[in-house]
Specification:
Elements (H helix, E strand, L loop, with lengths): L2 H6 L2 H12 L4 H6 L1 H9 L8 H21 L6 H16 L2 H24 L55 E3 L5 E3 L8 H34 L5 H48 L9 H28 L8 H20 L1 E5 L4 E3 L3 E8 L13 E8 H10 L15 E4 L2 E3 L1 E3 L4 E14 L15 E11 L2 E8 L4 E3 L5 H14 L12 E3 H16 L5 H10 L2 E6 L2 E6 L10 H4 L3 E3 H5 L10 H15 L1 H5 L9 H9 L7 E6 L7 E6 L5 E4 L4 H6 L2 H7 L5 E2 L9 E2 H5 L26 H4 L28 E3 L1
Parallel strand pairs: 4-13, 18-21
Antiparallel strand pairs: 1-2, 3-5, 5-10, 6-8, 6-11, 7-10, 9-10, 11-12, 14-17, 15-16, 18-19, 19-20, 20-23, 21-22
Helix pairs in contact: 2-7, 4-7, 5-6, 5-7, 8-9, 8-10, 9-10, 9-11, 10-11, 13-14
């Protein structure tokens, strides 16, 4: 089936391409000479070596095209004859190179559309984008090859049809964060079905094998000519061989064009897998088993390219002319380059090291080669080594593209000392996995770069570089791959800021980038998805719309432009004002506002506060948070307003996170006077002594839990928290004569005064020096 017939079988594709050709008045030309144009252009060299050669090809095509058109004038259809004359006139008016390039680009678009119709699911169901954090302005990052392997795509390989998003590239309208807090996925691109990719590879390979059969017949005829040069039939056979070889060369070029597209498709899908791996570092869902399907595609491609390489070599061996076949030699070099690219791209980190890495602490990682068994490497497995690189070293290394270098000297580029940094690759027969596991690595030393301005060690990114040297198909090849960025710390108090660096990088990095460049500002819509993903994966319950509203209040940004400069000022909005998420979703949040600049009237940043709340919830409030008993993200004014309007009256309470205390949780309740009381915040060390549920049980003033965004109905205190209470054993007399004591929580409503609580000296509450006067012995604060 011709390419145009495949396009015309899909109405949308036919309409799109018809509009493309009609823009230059070439639609009738494409329709009337469809097979001839396809055979001629697709048999030409894909990437001519020089401009002069390209012009010669274009001029020759122009002449042959006119002759082909004129030869069709014998038709009895007068209308067709007149149209042919008009087309010939159009061809003469159009520069040859322009005409040839336009038709050639059109064929590439058709080829891509036809392949996509075969390899993508026809359902086209909406799904979350590969990078849900990035908005519609970041759509161009996915076409080039990744930084850890060579980019050999040139010329027409980068052409994408209008309105078509190349596989792996996030298109317009990624997602919208609605006011209710839900993330609404927008149609981004059809989901690639890897099974159908394998079917398409097999179909293209079967088409190529027809060329192999023709090549075998040519080889037999060629040897007949060599052995029977005095035979009268030899000259006719020789001429027939020349014609057959020309047809075979055209088929080989066409097969390589199909192969090259399929290889780019599979490698792009691998890049998408790696991007999903980075998002998984923030807690996003991740299906690791997809890598097995990608490996099957790599294995099929390796068989395809090996056979293609062999066929080109055999065709070159059929020397019918004394002159060297330059075009076939160029095609051979292109196929060899594509094969090396395939082999190098298949070397990846399948199990990432910890992204916040503490010195002198054991950690693990593993690398995998998706073509190990296919290349026979498992018979003599190479040893993989690992070093740690700084961001600058990684940038310099990647820019050199050392895959094809004669020497892969990486020892002098290390920024630290890693123990147990070498491992031999192993092949698992039952799973067909060829990998090297590093189970006991340990970073002993680290060399840091000089800091500039406000930079800290928690902002500095490193990466583990895994590399190996082996021989593939008679040539030596150096493969390497970089891990996701890591931050190296020496003390636990460096962990929060380090996770800010990693969270931002995982969420907002482009699929293809220089290590480890990332944008320094994002919209609130993007940031809210990242925060929701991080908090939800850590605490096992996603944030709700009201939770995101509260965070939005903390991060509402107004942009003020002055001539060429744009300054971003943090506005802490009035607590009584209801912010609409859709009004601020497009406002930008800078990296400094995210984790460097203190919040208004606070001595900590937004990230410090958010991370502390996340850690407190995970360590001490997890079960109650998952059950929806904690309102959490609500400001003080709204909490007071909601409680005053509650129909359940005195004793109604809610649990909220303190916005003035790092990692603090507090209770707001309606007291006996009908006003709202705020209990001073409890932090982790308080909850280690008495957990939150037991504290609520101790406070007799708390009677009814106010509805939360999960539990929409009021709940009796004991019904809401009873399952989380700690069982208290009945007191038994001690044999040593001492009387047992217990620790309980009290407030002024229970004792009639504002005396300190709890009564045991170990229960002294933490001083809230940032939000209230020095009430060191008090756990109560009246508004």
């Amino acid at each position: 089936m011709s390419l145009w017939k495949r396009i015309s079988s899909h109405a949308d594709c036919e309409q799109r391409m018809a509009a493309y050709y009609d823009e230059k008045g070439l639609l009738d030309l494409r329709l009337s000479l469809a097979p001839w144009i396809e055979d001629r252009i697709m048999s030409e060299q894909l990437t001519p070596s020089s401009t002069d050669q390209y012009e010669r090809i274009a001029l020759k095509f122009n002449e042959d095209l006119q002759q082909k058109l004129l030869s069709t004038r014998t038709s009895s259809d007068q209308t067709l004859k007149y149209r042919i004359v008009e087309l010939c006139a159009l061809i003469q008016r159009t520069p040859a190179v322009e005409l040839y390039t336009y038709l050639r680009s059109g064929l590439q678009k058709e080829l891509q559309l036809a392949a996509e119709k075969t390899v993508v699911s026809t359902g086209c169901q909406s799904s979350m984008p590969l990078n849900p954090y990035m908005n519609m302005n970041n759509t161009a990052a996915g076409l080039a090859m990744g930084s850890a392997y060579m980019d050999t795509s040139e010329g027409l390989g980068a052409v994408v049809a209008p309105g078509v998003v190349a596989p792996g590239v996030v298109g317009p309208g990624v997602s919208e964060v609605m006011h209710n807090g839900s993330v609404t996925p927008m149609p981004v691109r059809p989901k690639i079905e890897l099974y159908n990719v394998t079917v398409e590879i097999q179909r293209s390979f079967n088409d190529f094998m027809q060329c192999v059969k023709a090549l075998n017949m040519l080889s037999q005829s060629y040897h007949y000519v060599l052995n029977q040069h005095n035979n009268p039939d030899a000259e006719a056979t020789f001429k027939r061989c020349i014609e057959e070889k020309g047809n075979i060369v055209a088929l080989l070029r066409r097969s390589f064009m199909c192969y090259e597209f399929l290889q780019d498709l599979v490698i792009t899908e691998l890049k998408n897998w790696r991007r999903q791996q980075a998002l998984a570092g923030n807690g996003a869902p991740f299906n690791e088993t997809t890598l097995d399907e990608i490996q099957r595609c790599f294995e099929q491609l390796e068989v395809f390219v090996t056979q293609l390489l062999s066929a080109v070599k055999e065709t070159i061996a059929v020397r019918l002319m004394n002159a060297e076949d330059i075009e076939l030699t160029q095609l051979l070099e292109q196929i060899q380059c594509a094969q090396k690219n395939l082999v190098c791209s298949a070397f990846i980190v399948d199990k990432q090291p910890p992204q916040v890495m503490k010195t002198n602490t054991r950690f693990a990682a593993s690398v995998r080669w998706l073509l190990g068994s296919q290349l026979g490497l498992h018979m003599n497995p190479p040893t993989v080594e690992c070093i740690i690189m700084s961001e600058l070293q990684a940038q310099r290394f990647v820019s050199k593209r050392t895959h094809e270098g004669s020497n892969c000297n990486l020892g002098g580029q290390s920024s630290g000392e890693i123990q147990n940094c070498a491992s031999a690759m192993e092949y698992q027969q039952n799973t067909h996995v060829f990998s090297a596991g590093f189970r006991n690595m340990q970073l002993k030393k680290i060399k840091r770069a000089e800091k500039k301005g406000t930079e800290s060690v928690m902002d500095e990114k490193f990466a583990l570089c895994f590399f190996a040297t082996t021989t593939v198909n008679d040539y030596q090849i150096h493969v390497w791959t970089l891990s996701l960025p890591v931050v190296v710390i020496v003390h636990g108090n460096q962990e929060p800021q380090s996770w800010a660096t990693i969270t931002w990088d995982n969420a907002f990095a482009d699929i293809v980038r220089d290590p480890f460049v990332v944008t320094d500002r994002v919209t609130w819509a993007q940031l809210s998805i990242a925060l929701n993903t991080k908090f939800g994966s850590t605490t096992q319950r996603a944030l709700t719309g009201e939770n995101l509203d509260f965070l939005c209040e903390c991060h509402c940004v107004t942009c003020i432009a002055y001539s060429k400069n744009c300054y971003y000022i943090l506005i802490y909005t009035s607590l009584d004002e209801k912010l609409q998420r859709d009004n601020v979703a497009g406002e930008y949040i800078s990296w400094n506002q995210f984790c460097k600049e203190p919040l208004p009237d606070r001595n900590f940043t937004f990230w410090d506060w958010f991370f502390a709340i996340m850690k407190l919830t995970k360590d001490h409030l997890l079960s109650m948070w998952k059950a929806g008993r904690i309102t959490g993200f609500i400001n003080r004014a709204k909490a007071q307003n909601d409680l005053m309007q509650a129909t359940t009256g005195i004793g109604t309470f809610l649990v909220r996170f303190s916005d003035s205390e790092l990692g603090g949780v507090t209770i707001a309740y309606v007291n006996q006077y009908g006003t709202v009381t705020m209990v001073s915040p409890w932090i982790a060390r308080d909850l280690q002594i008495i957990n939150l549920a037991d504290r609520i049980r101790d406070l007799d003033a708390l009677r009814c839990l106010h509805p939360t965004d999960v539990n929409v109905q009021p709940l009796d205190r004991d019904s809401a928290f009873g399952e989380f209470y700690t069982t208290r054993d009945e007191e038994k007399p001690r044999s040593d004569g001492y009387v047992r004591t217990s620790v309980h929580v009290r407030t002024g409503d229970d004792t009639g005064s504002i005396s300190g609580t709890p009564h045991h000296p170990m229960q002294s509450p933490h001083q809230d020096s940032m939000s209230m006067p020095n009430l060191q012995n008090s756990t109560i604060m009246h508004l």
